[in-house]
Structure formats: structure tokens, C-alpha cells
Amino acid sequence: MAACSSFAKLNSFSSPWISNNSFSSRSGSSSLLATRRVSLPIRATAYSDELVKTAKTIASPGRGILAIDESNATCGKRLASIGLDNTEVNRQAYRQLLLTTPGLGEYISGAILFEETLYQSTTDGKKFVDCLRDENIVPGIKVDKGLVPLPGSNNESWCQGLDGLASRSAEYYKQGARFAKWRTVVSIPCGPSALAVKEAAWGLARYAAISQDNGLVPIVEPEILLDGDHPIERTLEVAEKVWSEVFFYLAQNNVIFEGILLKPSMVTPGAEHKEKASPETIAKHTLTMLRRRVPPAVPGIMFLSGGQSEVEATLNLNAMNQSPNPWHVSFSYARALQNTVLKTWQGRPENVEAAQKSLLVRAKANSLAQLGRYSAEGESEEAKKGMFVKGYTY
């Protein structure tokens, strides 16, 4: 189905960055032209300079984001895979392993936390946000309230969480968070319908504006799910429509582009497509989409892995950094950074050091990929295993 008709509106929408200038709107007969002058103010918040600085810090060379914002239920599934119960003590132990890894800040610039983690401390009483700051890693926070069915759509979802977001964001800022994440999804097998695309774009834009008003750099994430057997060309078509809609509504909500980060899906074939695409093909299609849709004012593109194997996600990122880009092209990975770590740890205290070393291996690999210098030589078989789960929930 065709997505919303407003994709073309960007061409006629004058940027909110115009200050002390105007454009003319003319009406009337050919013999008499009446001119109306319209001024458009620049969007400004008390945090404008800080937002830009935070975004640039996260989008720094050779570094990316560690996403550990899984809900307690999803974290419980990860723990169950190694035989651990889903308790706060076990969740804390695992997140402590990740967030206290020595030298992590060399490769990681930001960490997205779940609300529980933002307020937790190590077993020694040190706040997790302070552990991150000591490594020059910016603390972030997941602020959405999850996906629910979208009435009137083709079995699609919408993301809830705008109610109370301003007050929650203000509290998260006080606790030390400096950026936020809101994940919504678009399903290609389900259409996507124009309604679902518009709802995703509008929700992201409202969230982004509210976040910026409260000092948090918003990560804008309309995840185009890997589910389906469609070719890569279909993914490109949908991605262009989705991002066109997203930026139209970001502009309508006067969001400061220099103070946001994007977390897109890579443009790949559907996970069930008969032919796999090479990293070079994925890079070509993904960069084509970005160049057509993303203004160079945006400082960073932090890709999600979306169920790719650890090595696939790194190879694809590396391929996208073989030539200069207008933005910092990097990573915001969860499973593609954590899979080997979790299996190395197995919930045993004696394995913590080895698990932290495996995290550094993956973080360094993606750091090199951000710089365009990664080689898959010597990677383990475990790191090459795909992690796609049909109908995955976060």
C-alpha cells in the first residue's frame, strides 16, 4: 500500500531554521498580485547548545552506542538462555558486568539504559551513571512504553508513551541521562499502511520535541523490521517513504536537527528472502536512502543490528564507511554486542573478566568498522551466527 501523501510536502515546506527572513505567498488575479510576508522563527530551547554538544560527543570518531535498554521481560529471556532466573539481582549483575568494563569508553560513546538501570548502583554502591561518566560515556534512557496494536491498520503497531513524557524526561535528566531513545516499528509484510507510517512518524516527532525541551538528545528510531521475504529494493522503497514522513513531522515540530541522532535499520532484503545481500550491496542501498532523505545537519547515524549476526552487523557497517559520509555513520547495537558476552559469562562470577574482554573485542571491532578498517579475519563461529527472531519484541 502506498504510504502517506505528505512525503512530498518537504519540497514545499520552508525550514524552521530561517531567521529574520521571509518568503512571499502570492494570490489574486493576473492583473493584481497581493503579497503576504511570513516570518518563521528558529526553534530554541534552554538546552540548545547542550543538545548539540551531547550529540557531537556521542557521534565521535571510532565510537558508538551500547544498547542495554531491554525491558525486564526481554532481559529475562536473555538470562533464561544461560539458565538464570529473571530477578533484579541477576539483571543488576549482568548490567554491572557490561557497564564496569575497563576501557569501554575507548569504543563506546553512549549507553542506552532501561529505567531500572538508570537508578541502580554497583554492588559496591557506585551509581551506574557515574561508572559511565568515568569512561566518558554518555548515559541514555529508553522512554517509550512499548508497542500496542494500532486500530484501523493492517495488524500493525503503534508506540505508546507520550503521556507524562515531559515530567519523566525531566526526572531522567536530573538522574544523569543526556539522551533518549524511542523505538517504533514498521512492518513490510503488513503493508506498511499509510496510517501506520504516519503514526510512527508523528509519535517520533512529538517525542523528539519533548525530549529536547527537557535536555535530552532524542534518538529517532523507526525500525523497519527484517521480517518478510521481500527483496532489498522493496526495503529501500519503504525506508525512503518512512524517513521522508519522519523528517516532515520533525520539521513541523521544530525539532533541532543538530541535536538529534538517528537509529535506522540497514537496508537489507527480508530475513526470509531467498538471496542474501553482500555487505557492499547493503551499504550501497542504505547510503542511497540516507543521502536522499537525511539532512547533513544531523550529526550521527547509529545503526541498529536488528537480528543480524555480530559479524554481519560489523561487516555491513564497515562497508558503509569506505568513503566519507556527511554524517558520523556508526552503531547502536544490543544483541550484536552482547551475544558472545552473555554466553561467555554464563552467570558465573569467575567468568566476569573473560566476558568483559569479549565485550571489548566486539566493541573494538565495531569501532574499527566505524573507521572503515575492520576485517572479519579470526572471528569466532559464534559471532557469525544470525540472531533474527520472527516477530521479535524488545
From TrEMBL:
InterPro entries xref list: Aldolase_I_AS, Aldolase_TIM, FBA_I
CDD domains found in the cross-reference section: FBP_aldolase_I_a
PROSITE patterns membership: ALDOLASE_CLASS_I
Pfam families: Glycolytic
GO molecular function: fructose-bisphosphate aldolase activity
Pathway: Carbohydrate degradation; glycolysis; D-glyceraldehyde 3-phosphate and glycerone phosphate from D-glucose: step 4/4
Enzyme Commission identifier(s): 4.1.2.13
Superkingdom of origin organism: Eukaryota
Reactions it catalyzes: beta-D-fructose 1,6-bisphosphate = D-glyceraldehyde 3-phosphate + dihydroxyacetone phosphate
Leader peptide range in chain numbering: none
Keyword entries, A-Z: Glycolysis, Lyase, Schiff base
Family affiliation: Belongs to the class I fructose-bisphosphate aldolase family.
Protein name per Swiss-Prot or TrEMBL: Fructose-bisphosphate aldolase
Species lineage: Eukaryota, Viridiplantae, Streptophyta, Embryophyta, Tracheophyta
